[in-house]
Design goal:
It contains 8 helices and 7 strands; from the N terminus they run E-H-E-H-E-H-E-H-E-H-E-H-H-E-H. By secondary structure, the chain is of the alpha/beta class. The chain has one domain: Spore Coat Polysaccharide Biosynthesis Protein SpsA, Chain A. It has a 7-stranded mixed β-sheet, sandwiched between helices. Helix 1 links the parallel strand 1 and strand 2. Helix 5 packs parallel to helix 8. The longest helix is centred in the last third of the chain and has 21 residues.
């Protein structure tokens, strides 16, 4: 049976989490409702992450990786993952595992009628400052994009690959994935998923990244929306 779904896992200095990532994703592969493979994207880690990723992929035929020469950021890692996907569906999950791989099945059950299905983190287990900054940032983003999404920062999404590959990615645009699907006249849906506190490693985003950075990115999105080229080929000869 050929693969139907690729899970992209961006990694930047997550050596303390990778063993658990291997365990949890391996468990998910046994219950996945689509034939699934895992693609690590090492975003220029400077710790032992690559050593661990290489070992994981050697021991698990359903795991593979690509490695950046230097740190390029989450949006670049996601873009590279989409670009190197050859399955009908693609998704991603953060390597801190604050969301549960098993919840991919909830999203996969809905993807047939939609082009992107995203999780909404229910009962978030983050600090008050992180939760409030995310709430404010999501409100600002909705005002600019009118995408109707409550939690675009949720690191659990499933997208039809044909749409994912046409997303023009730039730094910060990972927060606008649902809006970019709407630009392609695609359809989107959000579903509540589990959320857990970070167990190991360090968060990569501070107040600037969660609040002020996204505000600036909203203006980049408006420019993109005005300039976006959307076409479909009807025939080839």
């Amino acid at each position: 049976m050929s693969y139907e779904f690729t899970i992209v896992v961006p990694v930047f200095n997550e050596e303390d989490n990778l063993q658990r990532v291997e365990q949890e994703l391996s468990k998910y592969l046994k219950i996945a409702i689509k034939k699934t493979k895992i693609l690590f994207v090492n975003d220029g880690s400077t710790d032992k992450s690559q050593e661990l990723i290489t070992k994981i992929c050697k021991n698990n035929p359903d795991f593979s990786f690509i490695k950046f020469e230097e740190n390029c950021g989450l949006s670049a890692a996601i873009a590279a993952g989409f670009e190197n996907t050859d399955t009908e569906l693609v998704g991603y999950i953060d390597s801190d595992l604050q969301t549960a791989p098993e919840d991919f099945n909830l999203l996969l059950k809905e993807i047939g009628d939609y082009d992107l299905v995203t999780g909404v983190r229910a009962n978030r287990k983050d600090s008050f400052v992180k939760n409030m900054s995310s709430t404010i940032a999501n409100g600002i983003r909705r005002a600019f994009t009118h995408d109707g999404m409550d939690d675009t920062g949720c690191p659990l999404k499933v997208i039809k690959t044909e749409y994912a590959k046409k997303i023009p990615m730039f730094k910060g645009l990972h927060r606008f994935l649902p809006a970019m699907i709407l630009l392609q006249n695609g359809s989107i849906k959000q579903i509540p998923v589990q959320h857990f506190p970070r167990i190991a490693g360090e968060a990569k985003y501070g107040l600037w990244n969660r609040l002020l950075g996204p505000l600036m990115d909203c203006f980049a999105y408006l420019w993109m929306k005005k300039k976006y080229l959307n076409y479909k080929i009807s025939h080839k000869g």
